[in-house]
Every structure is written in C-alpha cells, then in structure tokens.
Amino acid sequence: INGYLENLVDDDHVEDPETSRRFLTIMRKHGDRISRIVEDMLVIARLESGEAGQLKMKPFAFEGCAHDVLERLQPLISAQGSKVRLAAAPEGLAILGDRFYWTQILFNLVENALKQNPTCPLKIEIGYEAEADGSVRIWVSDNGVGIPSAVLPFIFRPFYRVEKHHSQGTIRGTGLGLSIVKRAVEAHGGEITASSTPGEETRFEIVLPPEAVAPREAEVAGGPM
Fold first, then answer.
1. Which one of 12, 136, 141, 157 has the fewest beta carbons within 10 angstroms of its own beta carbon?
2. Are 203 and 124 in contact (CB under 8 A)?
3. Tell me: the pLDDT tens digits for 167-194?
C-alpha cells in the first residue's frame, strides 16, 4: 500500500486518472486483506485465550446457518459458475452451540474451496447425517483440484497455504481460515479431518458428540427447521 502511495504522490500519477484508479483498486484489495487478517487473528485469539469457555451455547438450525453463509458467498459462487448442494439426513438438525463460530466454520470451508479453484466451476456439498450413537457427522466437500496428500497434515496450521499457481493480480487468503475452523470445532467438543483425491473429491468432515446436538423440539434460531 505504501509503495503504491509513493508512486501516486512522488511520480505525479495522481493526475493520471487511469493509473490512479488502477493503483487505488490494488490498494483497496490489500486493505481488505489486512482487515480480514486482523479479524481472523482476533477470532483465533478469543478461541485460544479461554474465552471459548464463554461460548454462547444456544440451539440453532444448522440448515438456516448454512443458507446464511451461502447467501453471503453467492456473488463469488455465481462468478465462478459453481453450484452448492445441501444434503441433510434427516432434515432439521439443531446444534447446541455458538452460531457465530459455526458461521465462521461453514464460511471458511466453502470460501476455501472456492478460492482454491478460482477458474473451476465447482460442485460443493454441505451435508450431515445422524449416527446410531447420537453423534452427528457434518461435511463440506468439493470436486476441485484437491490437496496433495503430503501437505494434508499441515493445512490446519496458522498461516499455512497450499502453494498453487496464482496470478500476480490475485490477493490470496490470510492462511488463517482452516486454523479458525479447527479451533472452533474443538471448542464445541468436535473433531475435524480432511481427505482429498485431487480432481475427484476434497472432503472436510466434522464429528460432533451427542451432547452437541440439540433436541429436535428445542426452540432454535436461524430459520425454520
């Protein structure tokens, strides 16, 4: 940002509308990325500081939360020509948890799939199924380029990125999204794993214990069950 500011001011590019607009657009992208980094680091700090014990645990409709996330990501989904499917078995899952952090979980997983495949129209699935022991299995999967098996053990580390070919004009993510996902899932007593067959399926799977599942008759927020 400072470099582009110096070029604008010191090289008299302010008088050139086309160059000024191009520089300002790049600066805005980097400013947005700085803002995202700060927000993500604050979320991680809250989860690691013991504040996770202060989670606002209330029952909410998982499907309503998922639809809210997809609405926020719709411009990116449409721009890439991707499709997202919600698979529910049975319908009407209510989670006892902090809806804010579950929004973070789903948003980061879906956004991660889209950003790792910027030129590939994806088929993304958000799904869940109830297990016989009362636990719930939740997943987000896509059919994109995938993650090499050698790096799968490291993807939940803060600032870790799977190296891919990016154009110079692309502003990459913060590298904190999957770290937030892991910490938020664990704060709810769950576990998350990742598997990938490049070009076929990349799948993030969350297993929640029975106590994280709200009774179906519980009053929930976030849309109808």
1. 12
2. no
3. 444 445 567 889 999 999 999 999 999 9
